[in-house]
């Protein structure tokens, strides 16, 4: 073995949306025994508290206007850490393979000869609506659901997202990272044939004690966001299933204290 050969393994671990009760057993075990944890901005404090005191912590979060590390730098960091540590945990909010760039990081790590394993997590697009009392499918309302990113690229609207196909092809639409681009998204959905009365829910900090919801319609939600000052990070749910929220929210799970 040469000095550049990895001595350890990188685990791409999904931390879930925030409630530590939603961590998988495998994720919790790896967080507790890791030699070093490289974590994102959306990982909640109670989950970070599980990291062993002697473990090295490295923040590699990416938030709008506050990028700690470029993606290429993060991957290079993981490669270097695997050459010095047995258990390297790359801790990501939600699920690593659902808008978490886990596929990109795994591809680069494997190309560099670094052993890597993915540990799925509960994605916010499923958990946040559930904690708000919104089922993504329901036999009377929706038999299809589409997950899509609403995130801008280089401060511009992303034309590569085919909103027309999404609007016409799915009864429920879950939009990640779409609050800042909401006017463009709503306009695209309306142009594609969705009615202005179509229900929409925005869920901020889903599954956490400070979870917030904003309910409205495609015709009203942009003005509601401006009036209330509703901010990211949040997921949006579009479709008739949102109408169940007033009924089902009474039976929603309660996030653990943080």
Tags for this model:
258 residues, alpha/beta, 5-stranded parallel β-sheet, 5-stranded mixed β-sheet, 9 helices, 28% helix
Question: How is this structure best described in words?
Answer:
- The structure is a single chain.
- With about 260 residues, this protein is an alpha/beta fold.
- The protein contains 9 helices and 12 strands.
- The strands form 3 sheets. A 5-stranded parallel β-sheet has the order 3-2-6-1-7, with helices on both faces.
- Strand 4 and strand 5 (about 65) form a beta hairpin.
- The longest helix is centred in the N-terminal third of the chain and has 12 residues, at about 70-80.
- The model is unreliable at about 155-160 (pLDDT under 50).
Summarize the topology.
Layout: E1 9-14, H1 25-33, E2 36-39, H2 45-48, E3 56-59, E4 62-63, E5 66-67, H3 71-82, E6 87-92, H4 102-111, E7 116-119, H5 124-132, E8 145-149, H6 163-169, E9 172-176, H7 182-191, E10 199-204, E11 212-217, H8 221-228, E12 234-238, H9 245-248
